[in-house]
Amino acid sequence: MKHRVFIAINLPQDIKKRIFGYQEKWPELPARWTKEHNLHITLLFLGDISDEDLGEVCKITEKVALKHKPFSINLKNISYGPPKKMPPRMVWVKGEISKDSSSLKDDLEDSLIGGGVRFSSENRGFSPHITLGRIRTWELRNMELEEIPEISEEINLNFEVNSIEVMGSQLKKGGPEYIVLESAPLG
After folding, report:
1. Count of the separate structural domains present in the chain
2. Which of 19, 2, 8 is closest to 157 using CA atoms?
3. Side-chain half-sphere exposure of 9, counting CA atoms within 13 A
4. Which domain holds residue 107?
5. pLDDT string in tens for the chain (187-residue length)
6. Using CB atoms within 10 A of its CB, is residue 54 exposed (0-12), middle (13-18) or buried (19+)?
7. SS3 track for the chain
8. 70: in domain
9. Does 186 reside within a domain?
10. Residue 103's domain is classified under what CATH number?
11. 187 in a domain, yes or no?
12. In a domain? residue 141
């Protein structure tokens, strides 16, 4: 059986609640907003993997997590993303790039590849972000330019990362549902 899997940093409940509240600021934006309980930062998207590889992913993730100390993430702003994409594809919360989160992501990727887990590596620098909503581009294209809201919110939210999670994603009618398959505490 195949599982749609990614490795993520899950957010504390109070941070999820604060970020989720911003969705109400742009009711006219044609977007499929992320459900509050689904808000997270993806470290690595693995895609569809087998039962066998899933066991290996969980073991490797636990080992890698123990080698990294807990660290903080600072969420800086909410804007359209990715940068320079026109029309934009999403509304996202951008975090400050840190050595801690980047080295954790790189270590995970190298260890999984070294452990024989097959997935499509994105091979780009890690930029922590949370997808707040996915824009329905065709609807956005039908809006007048002045109807499209400006999205540029400066925020300052910090939280401590004490664990990373291997997450399963099930695509359902109302949007994806994410479940924690394995939680790996940081060292």
Report:
1. 1
2. 19
3. 29
4. 2-181
5. 788 999 999 999 999 999 999 999 999 999 999 999 999 999 999 999 998 899 999 999 999 999 999 999 999 999 998 877 778 899 999 999 999 999 999 999 999 999 998 887 766 678 899 999 999 988 988 988 888 899 999 999 999 999 999 999 988 887 788 999 999 999 9
6. buried
7. CEEEEEEEEECCHHHHHHHHHHHHHCCCCCEEECCHHHCEEEEEEEEEEEHHHHHHHHHHHHHHHHCCCCEEEEEEEEEEECCCCCCCCEEEEEECCCHHHHHHHHHHHHHHHHCCCCCCCCCCCCCCEEEEEEECHHHHHCCCHHHCCCCEEEEEEEEEECEEEEEEEEEECCEEEEEEEEEEECC
8. yes
9. no
10. 3.90.1140.10
11. no
12. yes
Q: What residues have CB less than 8 Å from 103, skipping those under 6 apart?
A: 68
- Through-space distance between the first and last CA atoms of the chain, rounded to whole angstroms: 32
> Strands across the sheet with 175-185, in order?
40-50, 2-10, 163-172, 175-185
